[in-house]
Amino acid sequence: MDLPSFISALPKAELHVHLEGCLTPGLARTLAARNNLPLPPSLSALDQTGSSYSFHDLTTFLQVYYPNLSVLQTAHDFADLAISYLTTAHAQNVKHCELFFDPQAHTARGVPFPTVVRGYQAGINTAQRALGISASLIMCFLRDHSAEFAMATLMDSLPFKDVIIGVGLDSDERDNPPSKFAAVFQRAAKEGFLITMHCDIDQPDTLTHIGQAINEIQVDRIDHGTNIIDSPELISTLKQRGIGLTACPISNGIVTDDFKGKEIIELLRQGVRVTVNSDDPAYFRGYLNENMLKLASAADLNVTRKELIHLQRNAFTISWISSWKRNHFLQMLDEFERLTLGSEATQVLNGV
Ligand code: HPA
Ligand code: ZN
């Protein structure tokens, strides 16, 4: 089996994907037309030049990302966005997804909180029924807004605790450390939400932020966070507590100067529960298979097929699902390994 076929056939879990980052130009045009709205500026520029979105780091990416969301108005729109992503994920043999969403990016422009959550959940239900894919929602707070706004959003979410499994923190990390939201996350934990948060790549004070996430906020997971490679002490705590990292190679390569494959594989080989994910696939032009392939085909990394399976074992292990479901998916991976690798389990990918 060639490498792309191996990756396609591998049963996978996606733990770091922003639903708003799945808004393809095509879907945005459809929704703009349906809602009688003008195309957002980045999309009309795209239409005129035929080129791709223009950004070079997290801040400039977010400056394109948020204005595009104006086309999302009704529960039907949010449902269609979730169905669109889950259809692609299913076609890539993704078995389970934990989907970030940014309610404040919608409530701040007048869309009611229940419209967002009910729409996304309806889309998930439809995709689950039609495709059998498993999915759940993680609500992210926008860290470049106030802690008060985050707390009010947490309060809005309480009637929806049955459909939101956890909370996260995203958007612009500069000058917005995890500790700014300590009270919000403390309350979220008390309400029974699981906790993750972005520690974006190569940010100022990144190790301080990672340390706060682990020790002060007591996160269950970290999104990105691979700069931890520079702190053996934090790595040791991470491993002790079994905290996983959701890495996103293609995204890294676009918002920084490197896709950080070396760091991801080094952490994997040190026994950290690192995973591979797609982040904002409509913008970064890569879903889960493309992200796995990016890592697997880097000649200097010598990633083995066994390690690719291990990355997915990590994903199911750190996913927020019942132990029954986890065992089911892990058995699926065992079977996949037996069928594909047999005794060749340690073969090196490159040149195979
Ligand atoms: N980092 C921070 N905020 C985000 C991202 C990201 O990768 N994607 C969407 N919002
Ligand atoms: Zn992200």
Automatic annotation (TrEMBL):
Binds 1 zinc ion per subunit. Substrate binds at D280. Pfam families: A_deaminase. Residues 11-335 form the Adenosine deaminase domain. Keywords: Cytoplasm, Hydrolase, Metal-binding, Nucleotide metabolism, Nucleus, Zinc. One of its GO terms (molecular function) is adenine deaminase activity. GO terms for cellular component: cytosol; nucleus. One of its GO terms (biological process) is nucleotide metabolic process. InterPro entries: A_deaminase_dom, ADE, Ado/ade_deaminase, Metal_Hydrolase. It is found in: Cytoplasm; Nucleus. The keyword S-adenosyl-L-methionine does not apply. NCBIfam families: aden_deam (TIGR01430). Belongs to the metallo-dependent hydrolases superfamily. Adenosine and AMP deaminases family. Adenine deaminase type 2 subfamily. Catalyzes the hydrolytic deamination of adenine to hypoxanthine. Plays an important role in the purine salvage pathway and in nitrogen catabolism. This is Adenine deaminase. The gene is AAH1.
